[in-house]
């Protein structure tokens, strides 16, 4: 993926990895349009980095995405990169008698359907553009799940599979299709405790490694995956899946 001179649309970019990536790409001379649900944070980002555009968009709302597509066509016809980053994560305890599918449905709505809706709305605009790329945020948990986050992990496994098919179908245009698979990173994804959890990778360190991999084209199979996560990526192939699952999910 070319890291300069692009017009980039990034969804879910007001916090965490999305915000860090949006700001880093803006600092590299790209025109960056960030979407999110919180107008105050969008305004803050735009005020901090002149030229960065913030648009309030709800990826769970088909009408909101139709409006976004129209805005991109009218205001940013040079758009050549889409980063589908919006996502949510929640624990679920299915042992409880009062467990419901409410959280699971919300995760599927945002993490799966949200990505599909964004892709359907924006991918047609990328066709024929120079250095076109589509990047979606998955997770290293797509390969070996945390059992207390069942639907979140499953949603990322869905994206891992779906992106392979998209990559194959887009080969003739061409649009580079990339899968960003973060490990446990210091963000607020699962709550405030994660921001300074010593077990999590510092966000600046993760961002620096991602940018290095993208810049050097070190994305085999279209996967943006840290070397530290390769054992998890290949656990089933290499016969270590059961042991790794046990470590990640102690009895």
TrEMBL record:
Domain Ketoreductase: 6-180
Keyword terms of this UniProt record: Oxidoreductase
Alphabetized PROSITE patterns for the sequence: ADH_SHORT
Pfam family, one: adh_short
InterPro entries: KR_dom (IPR057326), NAD(P)-bd_dom_sf (IPR036291), Sc_DH/Rdtase_CS (IPR020904), SDR_fam (IPR002347)
PANTHER family: DEHYDROGENASE/REDUCTASE SDR FAMILY MEMBER 7B, DEHYDROGENASE_REDUCTASE SDR FAMILY MEMBER 7B
Entry's family note: Belongs to the short-chain dehydrogenases/reductases (SDR) family.
Name of the protein this chain belongs to: DltE
Organism encoding this protein: Herbaspirillum hiltneri N3
């Amino acid at each position: 993926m070319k890291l300069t001179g692009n017009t980039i649309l990034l969804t879910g970019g007001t916090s965490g990895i999305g915000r860090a990536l949006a700001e880093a790409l803006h600092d590299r001379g790209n025109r960056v349009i960030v979407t999110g649900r919180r107008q105050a944070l969008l305004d803050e980002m735009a005020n901090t980095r002149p030229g960065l555009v913030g648009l309030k968009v709800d990826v769970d709302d088909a009408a909101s995405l139709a409006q976004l597509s129209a805005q991109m066509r009218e205001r940013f016809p040079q758009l050549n990169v889409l980063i589908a980053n919006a996502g949510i994560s929640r624990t679920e305890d299915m042992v409880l008698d009062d467990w419901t599918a409410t959280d699971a449905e919300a995760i599927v709505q945002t993490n799966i359907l949200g990505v599909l809706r964004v892709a359907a709305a924006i991918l047609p605009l990328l066709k024929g553009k120079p250095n076109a790329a589509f990047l979606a945020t998955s997770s290293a948990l797509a390969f070996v799940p945390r059992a207390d986050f069942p639907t979140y992990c499953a949603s990322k496994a869905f994206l891992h599979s779906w992106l392979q098919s998209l990559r194959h179908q887009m080969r003739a245009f061409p649009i580079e299709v990339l899968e960003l698979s973060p490990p446990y990173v210091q963000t607020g994804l699962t709550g405030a405790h994660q921001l300074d959890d010593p077990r999590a990778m510092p966000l600046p360190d993760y961002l620096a490694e991602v940018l290095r991999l993208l810049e050097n084209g070190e994305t085999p199979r279209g996967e943006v995956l840290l070397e530290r996560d390769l054992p998890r990526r290949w656990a089933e192939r290499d016969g270590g899946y059961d042991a790794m699952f046990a470590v990640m999910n102690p009895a």
